Structures are given as structure tokens and as C-alpha cells.
Amino acid sequence: MVREGFAASARLTAWAWGYAAIAVGTGWWSAAVLAAVLLPVAGRQGREAVDTLATLAESAVDLHARDVAERLGVACPDAFGPTTAAAVNTIL
Hints:
The chain is mainly alpha-helical. Helix content is 85%, strand content 0%. The chain has helices at residues 2-26, 29-71, 82-91.
């Protein structure tokens, strides 16, 4: 779902730049208006998609950090702390 949202934002950005190129090349003012409207909308959608993706990635790391450490052979005490994180980072 997040990837589809980001892809839609990229397509909208491509359309906006296409309209901008048409406006510059032909002087068609309505294409310039479309580009001026579509570019900020596409940028907002892209930022929202990336924000959602970052939140999901952070959640996945929070949920599976101990499992990753154990599979890498790092001793993981009761809490996943900075020393365990540093050992995992060194291995990765």
C-alpha cells in the first residue's frame, strides 16, 4: 500500500513536469496551471508515503531487533540496549 502511494506520487510528478515542459515549449498557459497545481500535490503525497514507510520500518525494527541480534549470535540480555545495538551494527 505504501509503495503504491509512493509510485502514484512519482507518476503525478512526472505528469506535472511533462505539463511544465509543454507549457514552456508551446506557451500553453493551461498546462502551466496544471503543472503549478500538480507539483505541490505530488510532493505532499510523496512526503506522506515516505513518512508512512519510515514509521513501518521503525516498527519492524522495534519488533524484531532481539530476533536479529540472536540470529547474528549477539548475546541479548533482557533489554535491547546500546551495547547490543552496537554489536549488531558492527556485524551488519
